[in-house]
Structure formats: structure tokens, C-alpha cells
Amino acid sequence: MKYTLTALLALMLAACGEAPKEGAKPSAMQAKAAAKPALTVATTTPQPLDWPQTLKASGNVAAWQEAVIGPEISNYRITEVRASVGDVVKKGQVLARIAADTVESEFAEVRASVAEAEATLAEARANHERAKQLTAKGFYSAQQNTQTQTAADTALARLDAARARLHSAELKRSKATVLAPDDGIISARSATVGTLTQPGQELFRLIRGGRLEWRAEVTAAEVARLKPGQAATLTSPNGEEVAGVVRAVAPTVDPQTLNALVYVDLPAEAAGKLGAGMFARGEFRLGQSPAMTLPQSAVLLREGFAYVFRVEGDKVAQLKVTTGRRSAERIEIGRLDAKAQVVAGGVGFLADGDTVRIVPAQAAAPTTPAAKP
């Protein structure tokens, strides 16, 4: 059996207990059907919370201080290398040995010259004593007495010079052993057995104390918000978090990148998670600040903008808002009245001006863990 469109609408309205009026048109019936609620929703209002304020940054991990260790005597052959890259060394520990045959020979020669100078001085002083006695008896003239005094003084000066050469030889002999100047970790090694030492040659590099630092880059506008003593958190490449403390903030800004460096001290255990030269991301904790928050389910992200749906009677109005920090399931929002009633969820199915049916929501108290910007 076939029915016209008007007859079908009449049957539908009759089933609902309503009869179509004389001359009713299908478009009016469609408008009545459109007035039905598009979605059943729960509402919520913005809640003020006290959240941590953070600043994200990135930069390289570097050694706090790196000592360059080289030979202090040149043109001597390296006979032994005792340290390699990654070794943890103590202050005074032997890192390498240099052939000391020639050094020992020079030391023995200078020590002999000191003994000779001592003997010469003893003879000159004895001669001067005899000269004084003979001068007193009239056998020596005053000029001869002066000559013996000069000879004794000259012998003393030569002895002092020989002793100075002996001290230099002793110091040179002690430099035949390359020692660690401080506790730390060997980060580079170029020393090789059999090579000759050269002036200014680098044999080892040492990370002093094994200490690392994070050199974070921040913009010129952000650097004023940072100061020594503030806490920072880095994320290592394997996802582990490392805590640090701001040691210093660079007083200048790079004119090319317009960024400033912030130096963050890292704990000793960070050496097992991070390495010098690594790139790391992290954030600085700037303190607490109030935030007006909504559940993330109440915010619609569309085409790079954030929207919420404010309830006005039985309809919703789409409003553009700004977003900020996030914490768990909540997000900081701006440009919204603190008393506004907004749809708490299912916003992806709504459009501006839709009719909704409101049901009570089971409001849960929001938590306040560490927020992310």
C-alpha cells in the first residue's frame, strides 16, 4: 500500500497523540522534529586551582669543568699508559709514565756539581781564614785578604747556582710520571706508548669531580624569570628524570639566536644517565600560580583553536577560549567567565546553537599533580 508524504506525517503525529492541523506543511513538521535535543549532556563550571608554574627549555649536557692533562717535559718517550676513557680516577693517581733514563742521568750530573761546589766553597773559606790570620801578623796585605774573601763569596754563589739546578733536576725527574690533578672521569685519551712528548701536547682530558651540567637555552624574554637556586628537571634519552639546580644565568644574550644560557648543576649520579654532549629537554619550576581549569573533555580542539560550549537555557553556544598548563585530566583555560556553565563531555558531537538535555553530573574533586605548560 502506498502513502503520500503528508499521510505518513499524519500517521506519525497521530501515533504521538497529536493530529496535524489543516493545511500543515512537511517543512513545519521537520522544524518540530529538529527542536528535539541533539545530545544529553552534563555541565561543569571552571574551578580555580593552585598549580606549579613551569618553563620548558632544551640544551646540551656538558662537563662542569674539563681539565687538559699534558706532559711537563718534552722529547721523552712514553713507556706506560695506565688510564683509558671512562676510568674514574683519584687525585694523584698515575695516568702515564715517561722514560726517565736521560732525566736520571741529568739529575746525577747536577748532584755531582753540587758536591764539587760545596768542596770548592769549603776550600775558599779555609783559605780566607788563614789569610785573615796572616794579615793580622803582617805577612799578608789587606789586598790579599780581600782576594780570599772574594774567592769564598764566589764559591758560595756557585754552590747556590748548583743547588738551584739540582732542584730543577729533581722537579724534572718527578714530572716523568703523569698524575691526575683532581678526582674525576677520563673523557678523552690521546697518550700512546712509544710516542715522544711534545710541548703543549694533550695526553688526557678529565671531567673534574665527574660533575656534569645542563646548559639550557631560553629566550631573552624568559631569562629574567630564572635565578640561581631554582629547581629544574631533565629527561634523559631513556625517559628517566634527573633533578638539578640552577647555578648561574648568563648575563649576555647571543645576538644571533637571541637565546641565553642557563647553567644547571646535576647530581653525581646523573653521570650514569646522561653523558657530556647529549641533548636533553627539561623544565624549570618557577613557583605556584592560580589557574582556572576545566576537564580536558570539555575543551574542543579544532583547526588550531580551543572551544567550549556554554549552556544557555536548553541550547549551547560555542565560545573560543585560550589554553595553558595541563595537569592529569584538567587543562588551564582563559577568556571564560568563572560562573559559566559549560558542557563537560561529548563536545565533539555538538555544534553552535544545538539543543541539549542536561542531566546532573557526578562532579569529582580535581587533583593537583605537577602541571605541564
From TrEMBL:
Keyword Coiled coil recorded: yes
SUPFAM superfamilies (UniProt xref): HlyD-like secretion proteins
InterPro entries named in the record: Beta-barrel_RND_2 (IPR058792), BSH_CzcB-like (IPR058647), RND_pump_MFP (IPR006143)
The UniProt record lists the keyword Acetylation: no
Limits of the CusB-like beta-barrel domain: 216-284
Gene Ontology CC entries for this record: efflux pump complex
Molecular function in Gene Ontology: efflux transmembrane transporter activity
Coiled coil: 100-172
Sequence ranges assigned to domain CzcB-like barrel-sandwich hybrid in this UniProt record: 77-206
UniProt entry keywords in alphabetical sequence: Coiled coil
PROSITE patterns xref list: PROKAR_LIPOPROTEIN
Family in the record: Belongs to the membrane fusion protein (MFP) (TC 8.A.1) family.
Protein name, UniProt field: RND family efflux transporter MFP subunit
Species name: Sulfurisoma sediminicola
Taxonomic lineage of the native organism: Bacteria, Pseudomonadati, Pseudomonadota, Betaproteobacteria, Nitrosomonadales
